[in-house]
Every structure is written in structure tokens, then in C-alpha cells.
Amino acid sequence: MAEFLKSSHHPCLQFEAAWALTNIASGTSAETQAIVNGGAIPPLAELLSSPNMTVCEQALWALGSIAGDGPEFRNVVISSNVIPHLPVLVSSTISITFLWNVTWTLSNLCRSKDPYPCEEAVRQMLPVFSYLLQDQDSEILSDTCWALSYLTDACSEHIALVLDTGVLPRLVELLTSVELSVLTPSLHTVGNIVTGTDQQTQMAIDAGMLKVLPQLLQHPKSSIQKEATWALSNVTTGPHEHIQELITHNLLLPLVALLRNGEYKVQKEAVWTVANFTTGASLDQLF
Q1: Is the pTM of this model over 0.90?
Q2: Residue 216's domain is classified under what CATH number?
Q3: Where are the ARM repeats (predicted)?
Q4: How many domains does the chain divide into?
Q5: Whether residues 187 and 234 fall in one domain
Q6: Cβ(78)–Cβ(121) under 8 Å?
Q7: Strand, helix or coil at 119?
Q8: In whole angstroms, how far apart are CA 265 and each of 37, 94, 222?
Q9: Confidence of residue 159 (pLDDT cuts 50, 70, 90)
Q10: Which domain covers residue 247, as residue numbers?
Q11: How far apart are the first and last CA of the chain?
Q12: What torsion do the CA atoms of 114, 101, 56, 132 make, to the nearest 10 degrees?
């Protein structure tokens, strides 16, 4: 099958081979391992520069499926020099479905933190995410935000790299999205950012996250209430100045309302928030 991918004079054959490999990669890890062992990744990566956009897109789909199977296969895909092709594709005139595919593949290249993708790969991908985050398509925004949430998960070094791109104001803006598929990962990403250093948390506060949280604490979806409360609990682990920001933005009343009436999973996060608040607050802030 891998040999058919090299048939540059027969793009139809290349497409069918890439399609078959995509289907195999959507199966078990053992089946994906067979693709890797069969040497299919290098020719698939080569097809990302194919002049035939149909072949190129199918090859990308196959690589995205392989990368999504776990960190080992993800790293094999990254080491095949796939990432430099992706900014070129994004900046070219491709269909919206192709752009969805590119964004989804990039998201899969960020998944798994055992281990995280290497710093070089992250640095290569972040400018693309910064560009994609300005799009208006909900599917592109959703996958981009999920990718950023994977990168910022319990890793202050990656949080710093993400913040250096200047995407934080846009992430906070997306917290007002009516699309749950966009709101959920953008909120999770901002919540991850405030697990970082006090300075990183301050950047999120300065970007306006606390202005949006009161509405999210009262969101009709309990999953959003829980994420918003979790983000708030991370802010309350900081210094007195962060706790004062919480008071200034009138976040205590909706928090108490969740303690009284929220679902159990939301109440659990609210209790953590109150515990952090009472532990870190000054006497003046408490009384």
C-alpha cells in the first residue's frame, strides 16, 4: 500500500491508497502500528506537497488519524516533517473542508501529555493556531481551542509559549460564544492558563476573563458552570490582589448560588473555590 502512495503519475491510485490507509488508521492501535511498520508515513508526508489537492487532503487525513492514536504515533508523524507543510496549506486557497482537516490534524498533533509534543513542534504550530483563531467558522475555532487546551494542560512552559503569541484576548472573547463547541474548549484553555504562575493568571485577569465569568457561572449548561467554577478556583489560589479582583467583579453571589442550587459536580468545584478563597484572603476581604 505504501508503494502505491509513491505513484506520482497516477494520482487516482495515490488517493485510493491514502483513503484505504485512513480507514485502517481509524481502527485499533495495532492496525495503526501496522501502517507505521509498513513505512507509510514518509510517503504520506511527501503527498502534502502534491499539486493534486484531493490527494493532499486525503494524505493529511490519514496522518491526522495516525497522530490521534497516541503520543508514540504522534511523535512519528511530527518527526516526518509534517508540520512545516501545514502553514503553507492554511495560507493557500483551500476548501473549508480541507481547512477543517488541517485544523483537526494540528489538534491531534497537540494531544497527549505523556509526553507532550516537543517544544520545537509546539513553536512551529503556535503561529498557525494564532491565525486560525481569527477565523469565524465554529469547527475551526473549536479544534483550535482544543489544541490550545491540550498544550496548556498543567505545563507552565507551554502556557508561556501560548501567551507569547498574543492569543489570550481572543480566547477571552470566545468565552462569549453562543456555540457550545467553541465555548467549552476556550473556557478550558483559559482555565488551564490560570493554573500557571501568578503572572500568567494576572494576564488572564487583565484580558477580561473575570468580566465574563459571572455570566458563565449562571450558564444553563452545568458543564459550563463547572468549568467556570474550576477556572475561578484556580484564580483564588493566587495572592490577595487576585482575590480582590474576584470581589470587585461580583463573583461571590453567583458562586454562593451554585453552592445552594448547583448540581453536585458544580457544587464540588464551588466548595474548592470557597476553600481557596477563605485560605488566601486577608481579614478585610473575609469580613
Answers
A1: yes
A2: 1.25.10.10
A3: 39-67, 166-208, 208-236
A4: 2
A5: no
A6: yes
A7: helix
A8: 44, 43, 8
A9: very high
A10: 210-286
A11: 71
A12: -90
Q: What is the DSSP string of 130-197?
A: HHHTT---HHHHHHHHHHHHHHTTT-HHHHHHHHHTT-HHHHHHHTT-S-HHHHHHHHHHHHHHTTS-
Q: Closest Cα to residue 67, out of 121, 148, 17, 13?
A: 121
Which of 162, 180, 209 finishes a domain?
Answer: 209
**HSE on the CB side for 132, CA within 13 Å?**
32
Considering the domain architecture, whether residues 25 and 158 belong to the same structural domain is answered as yes
Identify residue 38 by its one-letter amino acid code: G
Ranges of H-type helices in the chain = 11-25, 29-37, 41-46, 53-67, 71-79, 85-91, 96-108, 119-132, 138-151, 156-164, 168-174, 180-193, 198-206, 209-217, 222-235, 240-248, 252-261, 264-280, 283-286
Q: Which cell is 285 given?
A: 476581604
Rg of the chain, C-alpha, whole Å: 22
Identify the burial level of 271 via C-beta atoms within 10 angstroms of its C-beta, where 0-12 means exposed, 13-18 middle and 19 or more buried: middle
| C-beta separation of 204 from 168 below 8 A | yes
Q: If pLDDT is split at 50, 70 and 90, which confidence band does 68 have?
A: very high
